[in-house]
Amino acid sequence: MTDNEEPSPPRSGSAGTDEGSFLDPALLDRMTDAFFALDDEWRFTFLNGRGEAIVRDAAEEPVDGELVGRNIWELIPNAVDTTFHDNYVEAMETQSVVEFEAYYDPLEAWLDVRTYPSESGLSVFFRDVSDEHERREQLRSHEEALAAITETLAEPDQTFEERVSELLRVGVDMLDTEYGTLSRVRDDRYVFEIVHAPDDSVAAGDTVDLSTTNCERVVLTEQSLALSDVSDHPELADRAGNADWGISCYLGAPVRVNGSVYGTFCFYDRDPRGEGFDEWQVTLVELMAEWVSAELERQVIQEDLRRQNDRLEEFATIVSHDLRNPLAVAKGQTELAAEECDSEALEKAMRAQDRMERIISDVLTMAQSGTAVESPEQVDLSTVARDAWGTVDTADATLSAEDAPTLTADRSRLIQLLENLFRNAVEHGGDDVHVAVEAISGGFAVADDGPGIPEADREAVFDHGYSSRADGTGFGLSIVREIAEAHGWSVTAIESEQGGARFEFVDAGSV
């Protein structure tokens, strides 16, 4: 082509940018992608039907006549210096395929573009991926919201109030609302407990009549409520809360504690929503409300346990002082009476008093055995076993503990555990029973060569009150289990190699 020659359109029925290479126009017109070809001076050499329609829509001025032979940058000057222009130029200069996705403002669309250069021009395939891009952005937004919520709930150093405040912030961002609140219903009053707001129009501690709020509907129905435009609901629009505060959209979910509605977890704004709240948004608010419900229930349970522990400590004090003192007097008087006369009735009384003392001692031990171990330390189990052995009336029984491991435990409570096992072995195995304390994988075991425990009873022996002896307290092995669980151990009763009883203790996390 000379300087004076005009560019000629491609041959009828063919299209291409490479000399001698042609594409069937009919095939290109059937493609779902838009397509156009440019020569090395940026002039159109071919456009399929979809490509021509998009180019005409993107042109700055209405275009009459053929597009072939027209310069793309003269037709669409507002595309110069955009991502499209820069990538087209890069493809031509590097003679490399360039693929990209970008938003084209004149078309208000996201386009997926693939460019294929040659020495004589450029072939461009592109398609509208606005719907796909919106779905990807929505998915990304969902993932970010879930990640933020998960991070908030997993933060161990934050208080309940701090985590709820962060959940409200995440919800406000996700829903694009101004306000988020956790509120509690007390009779006919609505109390704001935790608030996320752009101003001081509402704050934690504020109270309003429940009947003035949208939340009343949530409380009464115990179901979520989503209002994209409150004015579309006359029965709610006239409520003082909406009219006075200017609430125009609302999304709230019920918070339940122990089966009853505690209050609501809700978000609202002073502008209506054009597209409303979608199913994902409603579900996410419901999930956050469920977590708040579970956490509040946990707090209620903890408070109940605290009160129970307080009562248990009070009971232990009564047992320790108000029962042991008169029992000691009774024992002393019985012993004095026994010195003055030989009576079988006095012997029975002293045996009963001894049993009462053991029961009191076991009850006091149980009062603290279930409490979690707070400050465990490294202890040599062989040494602890010998110390515990020395506190029990073992008669001619024997102990071997040289194979016992070193473990992390509360020493005094571990001694209590072993004392109960040793006493149990002697009481059931006789004065000459042999007891062994040894290491096992993940823990330790205490075994004896006594009569053992029937297989059918090996679970029941740990129950409160279970005893195979008429004079037993039924607390010994239940204390063993509670002390073990307080350390995070599981305990299992099986048969020893000698046919006796064997108790195995391992970390519950490894079972």
Question: Can you give a write-up of this model?
Answer:
The protein has three domains: 25-128, Beta-Lactamase, CATH 3.30.450.20; 136-297, Beta-Lactamase; 370-510, Histidine kinase-like ATPase, C-terminal domain (Heat Shock Protein 90, 2-Layer Sandwich). It has 14 helices and 18 strands. The strands form four sheets. The chain has a six-stranded antiparallel β-sheet with strand order 8-7-6-11-10-9, with helices on both faces. Strands 2-1-5-4-3 form a five-stranded antiparallel β-sheet, sandwiched between helices. It has a five-stranded mixed β-sheet with strand order 13-15-16-18-17, with helices on one face. The protein is of the alpha+beta class and 511 residues long. It is elongated, with a radius of gyration of 41 Å.
Summary, kept brief:
The chain is built from 14 helices and 18 strands. The protein has helices at 25-30, 49-58, 72-75, 83-94, 130-153, 160-175, 215-221, 234-237, 240-245, 279-340, 344-369, 381-389, 411-429, 476-486; strands at residues 34-39, 44-47, 98-104, 109-118, 121-128, 179-186, 189-196, 207-209, 225-227, 249-257, 260-269, 377-380, 398-403, 406-409, 434-440, 443-448, 489-495, 501-507.
